[in-house]
From TrEMBL, chain A:
InterPro entries: Znf_put. Residues 8-41 form the Putative zinc-finger domain. It comes from Marinobacter guineae. It holds the Pfam family zf-HC2. This is Mycothiol system anti-sigma-R factor.
TrEMBL record, chain B:
Pfam families: Sigma70_r2 (PF04542), Sigma70_r4_2 (PF08281). CDD domains: Sigma70_r4. NCBIfam families: sigma70-ECF. Keywords: DNA-binding, Sigma factor, Transcription, Transcription regulation. The keyword Transcription regulation applies. GO terms for biological process: DNA-templated transcription initiation. InterPro entries: RNA_pol_sigma-70-like, RNA_pol_sigma-70_dom, RNA_pol_sigma70_r2, RNA_pol_sigma70_r4_t2, RNA_pol_sigma_r2, RNA_pol_sigma_r3/r4-like, WH-like_DNA-bd_sf. Belongs to the sigma-70 factor family. ECF subfamily. Residues 27-90 form the RNA polymerase sigma-70 region domain. Residues 140-190 form the RNA polymerase sigma factor 70 region 4 type domain. This is RNA polymerase subunit sigma-24. SUPFAM superfamilies: Sigma2 domain of RNA polymerase sigma factors (SSF88946), Sigma3 and sigma4 domains of RNA polymerase sigma factors (SSF88659). One of its GO terms (molecular function) is DNA binding.
Length: 76, 217
């Protein structure tokens, strides 16, 4: 049975949940299908993906030597 | 006492192996552990304390980890729990009232950078939204994350940096799933609004429209 195509509004409403992989498989596929045929929504999804990658990169920062030494001593 | 001292000989060699793997992983993960702690605490000294306490706690409980392939996730979970308990202890001691359940008043919960930058009718000027992301400095992004109030910053760090599911976040923070969702939505809106404002201040965006993405001032 074919499910009705999602509108752009419905896709945008659930875009973050889609990117976070929080939707069930059927919903993930529905949005994926929409993104393949809708350039505007695809551009938006790519933008949010790229922004997320850049935010994720802020979670890595060179640890101070003092901390490394403290951890090494702890686990000797 | 190291986790191995209370073991029988057969168990001891397995524990020695666990310890070796643990040391290697912690060494490799150190920048990510510290970076995550820094985003959570916004304070280098506090971040060191969080990482130190978390690693010490994990080291002592290493025998409770049945599958070493889960070591990374297990360590980050302990890091988050350590941050939350340290934070609560500190604020109790300083007698400051900080609630992880506080919500902000902000009507603009749906701010979208993309909607402000995207110009579908001006395709010949390129892709301003893509340019904008490329021109953001890591310092801009760190600042935007660090400026989020605690309840919102924590969920962003857990979901966007660590990749936890909403349910995992709800369990670790002991919050209803709906609260995690609403905080995450609000956090993303605040974060994007902050980046927009920083982009304007840096001269990356025109003052009236979003399509001009220029050089930094």
């Amino acid at each position: 049975m074919n499910t009705p195509e999602l509108s752009c509004e419905e896709v945008i409403e659930r875009l973050f949940e889609f990117l976070d992989r929080e939707l069930d498989d059927v919903s993930q596929e529905e949005i994926d299908r929409h993104l393949k045929r809708c350039y505007d929504c695809f551009s938006r999804a790519e933008f949010e993906r790229r922004l997320r990658e850049r935010i994720a990169a802020t979670g890595s920062q060179k640890a101070p030597e003092r901390l490394k030494k403290r951890i090494r001593e702890l686990t000797e | 006492m190291t986790p191995v001292e209370s073991k029988q000989p057969g168990q001891a060699s397995a524990a020695n192996e666990s310890q070796r793997v643990f040391r290697e992983h912690v060494e490799l993960l150190m920048d990510r552990l510290y970076g995550t702690a820094l985003r959570l605490t916004r304070n280098p000294d506090e971040a060191e304390d969080v990482v130190g306490e978390a690693v010490a706690s994990a080291w002592q409980r290493l025998d409770q980890l049945n599958d070493l392939s889960h070591l990374d996730g297990w360590l980050f979970r302990i890091l988050h729990n350590t941050f939350i308990s340290l934070r609560r202890r500190r604020y109790c001691r300083e007698d400051k009232e900080v609630s992880f359940d506080q919500e902000m008043e902000d009507d603009d919960t749906r701010f979208s950078l993309f909607e402000h930058l995207h110009q579908p009718f001006l395709l010949w000027v390129g892709r301003p939204e893509k340019e904008f992301i490329n021109r953001l400095l890591e310092a801009d992004l760190r600042k935007a994350v660090d400026h989020l109030p605690d309840p919102f910053r924590i969920v962003v760090v857990m979901v966007e940096i660590q990749g936890y599911t909403y349910e995992e976040v709800a369990a670790i923070l002991d919050l209803p799933l709906g609260t995690v969702r609403s905080r995450l939505n609000r956090a993303r809106s605040l974060l994007q609004k902050s980046l927009w404002q920083q982009g304007r201040d840096a001269g990356l965006i025109g003052t009236n429209t979003g399509f001009r993405v220029g050089d930094r001032r």
